[in-house]
Amino acid sequence: MKKEKSRQEFTNSDVSSIEKGSEMNWRKPILWGIIAGAAIVGGAIGAGASKESPSEPAPAPENVTTAIVKKGPLRQVVQGTGKVASNLDVEIKCRASGEIVKVPFDISDTVKKGDLLLALDPRDQQREVNRAEANLAAAKARLEQSQAVLAVAETQLRADQQEAVAVVYASEARVSDAGAKAERERQLLAKKYSSPEVVETAETNAVQAEQNLKSAQAQIHAIKAQELNLETCRQQIKVNKAQVDASKIALDLAELQLSYTNIYAPIDGVVSARTAQIGNIVASGTSNASGGTAVMVLSDLTHVYVLAAVDESEIGFVQLGQPVSVVADAFPRTPFAGEVNRIGTKGIKVTNVITYEVRVEVTSENKTLLKPEMSTDVTIVIADKPSVLQAPAFAIIAKKDGDFVALKGANGSDEELQPVEVGISDGEATEIVSGLAEGAEVIVQDIESEGRTSRSNSTNGISPAHEAQHRQRMMMRTIGGSAAGRGH
Question: Which residue intervals of 345-463 are DSSP H helices?
């Protein structure tokens, strides 16, 4: 009897500590002990109950703990853990290869967009620029030379054409004159006024004039062939122009590679990592199969986020825009305000536990205290009601057909089950939406009444194992509620 009394006193004191929302450090181990004890006692009582007649009435409790239903503030939260993340992390790599000669910024330094982050030895790239400039100059010279050749050829062609036309005209005149002279000499010879020798000479001159005409005409055809040669010169000019364009592109590329020896900040941010040291040789990130050498990381901290893992059983309560309290391990006494910014679509399974990533944007003015990768505890406020009717969470009896509370009977010994509609819960108190009035006295379930309640539930469609699981969930919610209180 003394042992049972001490057990009763222990149970009542524990329940009282739950109702008062104690935040002492020994609470968690005691609650876990209660859970284990409840499972053992519930199993033993359930085994004994199977031997009793279902119609046998439950014995009246000798001592019960009661609570008064009253109004007060109530908050339901979802908790998780996470790490601080920056708005954007940019890994800086070099497009050129070479030796590092200058690194003006170190870790934690603030940089502005366009600041010089790193400089490579530019001598190799400068030589390539000089070579490209020389090739461009040679290509331009060849183009000018081919244009000059074309101009000379066109001028010579016009002169040859004029000369050939003049020769043809002159040859035609000589042919006409020589033919006329030969005809006159033949007429004079017929009248005996000329000699055969003179006639032969005149005829020979006429034949010679015709041959000269044919030569002049052939020269005109040769000039047409020169026109085809001019087209070849024009094509050579096009080739030389293409070579000039190619040389310009090569020069642009060489100058671009030279510019790559200086690496500038692409964003405003903070140097969060730096592996580059003066004298290191880095590989190009564009021409190297391995992706090149990362020299530093810039983090944009204009927006600070926490990537929290929320259990799948609670992710359904989380919505965008809900207020969040963040407590970092580095600043345990400095809570940071935030709100839910993104909810992951796909779960992450680790050791058979599925969680969802919830991104929380930190909105506190002191958010600059948080650094990427800091560990944090996150408390998401699901509901916060300033004044609601509430009863202790351990007073709620879950059954298949709904939720109930046990009321003390009129004779002071029997219990009456009252159906209720419950709302939010913080693990210690549960909102009573309907079914009870303010001031009602309800029975708070304890360890010894667990067996009696289990036997009663077994006759009402609820197994002792199901009821024990419900009690364990309530205890876990209580532990979570106390942690939520510490987070705030």
Answer: 447-458
Residue 136 and residue 226 in one domain: yes
| 389 and 427 fall within a common domain | yes
Query: What per-residue confidence (pLDDT) applies to 26?
Result: 33
Q: Domain holding 109: CATH number?
A: 2.40.50.100
DSSP of 15-43: HHHHHTT---TTHHHHHHHHHHHHHHHHH
CA–CA distance, 70 with 104 (Å, rounded to integer) = 65
Q: Is 47 left (phi over 0), alpha (psi -120 to 50) or beta?
A: alpha
Q: Are 443 and 459 in contact (CB under 8 A)?
A: no
Strand, helix or coil for residue 147: helix
Q: In what order do the strands lie in the sheet with 262-264?
A: 262-264, 116-120, 98-102, 281-282
Report d(CA 340, CA 359) in Å as an integer: 6
CATH number, residue 319:
2.40.30.170
**Same domain? 138 vs 227:** yes
Residue 71 has what pLDDT?
92
Task: Kindly state whether residues 49 and 8 are assigned to the same domain.
Answer: yes
Please say which residue of 333, 360, 378 terminates a domain: 378
92 and 293 Cβ atoms separated by less than 8 Å: no
Domain limits for position 409? 2-79+383-487
Do 17 and 479 form a contact (C-beta atoms < 8 A)? Answer: no
- DSSP assignment of 276-329 equals --TT-EE--TTT-TT---EEEEEEEEEEEEEEEEEETTTGGG--TT-EEEEEET
Which pLDDT value is given to residue 107? 92
Buried-state track 345-354, b at ≥16 Cβ within 10 A, e below 16: eebeeeeeee
What CATH number did the domain enclosing 51 receive? 2.40.420.20
> What are the mean pLDDT values of the chain's consecutive 10-residue runs (488 residues total)?
36 36 36 40 40 40 78 92 93 89 92 93 93 95 91 82 78 80 79 79 82 77 76 90 95 92 93 90 74 87 94 93 95 95 93 94 93 94 92 91 83 75 91 91 69 41 42 42 37
Residues 431 and 363 in one domain: no
